[in-house]
Amino acid sequence: MKNKSVTILMAEDSPSDAELARQAFKNGKLLNELIIVKDGVETMAYLRKEGQYADAVRPDVILLDLNMPRKDGREVLTEIKGDPDLKVIPVVVLTTSEDEQDVLRSYQLQASCYITKPVEFEKFIEVARSIKQFYFNIVTLPPNSDR
């Protein structure tokens, strides 16, 4: 995966959290593109290449907030894992919720991992860097059919 372009789709309704993620993923030697959508409806439109997303590149990893307007992350995760073409994409639940039921339900819905989003800037940057390090330097991701 090193020196390869990597696409990250982030479903995040908080503009400040989205900007923090953008800054965290921008730093480093990895070539990556961070696409941010603001809710679950946009997430599924992007993944299904609908409307304005007709030319969307399939993401290598999805960062998914649980608490979003219109369609929440639980519904999005259910749809992704129920779709034979999308279910192989790793989904990292990145949310403020520490609720045990949210954690359990996310894993039952086949999330790759569950990370509670820290509120402090430096800790958030550290989490984003750890995700990047793990998924793009350590893990072998499934082949991306868009490339």
Brief description of this entry?
This protein has 147 residues and is of the alpha/beta class. It has a single domain, classed as 3-Layer(aba) Sandwich (Rossmann fold), CATH 3.40.50.2300. The chain has a 5-stranded parallel sheet, sandwiched between helices.
How would you describe this structure to a colleague?
- The protein is globular and about 35 Å long.
- The protein contains 5 helices and 5 strands; from the N terminus they run βαβαβαβαβα.
- By secondary structure, it is α/β, with parallel strands linked by helices.
- Helix 4 (100-108) links the parallel strand 4 (91-95) and strand 5.
- The protein has a 5-stranded parallel sheet with strand order 2-1-3-4-5, with helices on both faces.
- Helix 1 crosses helix 5 and helix 2 (40-47) packs parallel to helix 3 (73-81).
Radius of gyration: 14 Å
What gross morphology would you assign? globular
The run of helices and strands is EHEHEHEHEH
Number of helices: 5
The biggest sheet, with number of strands, parallel, antiparallel or mixed sense and barrel status, is: 5 strands, parallel
Helix/strand-derived category reads: alpha/beta
Give the CATH topology.
Answer: Rossmann fold
Write the layout of secondary structure elements.
Layout lengths: L5 E6 L3 H12 L5 E6 L2 H8 L13 E4 L8 H9 L9 E5 L4 H9 L4 E4 L4 H18 L9
Supply the key terms.
147 residues; 5-stranded parallel beta sheet; Rossmann fold; alpha/beta
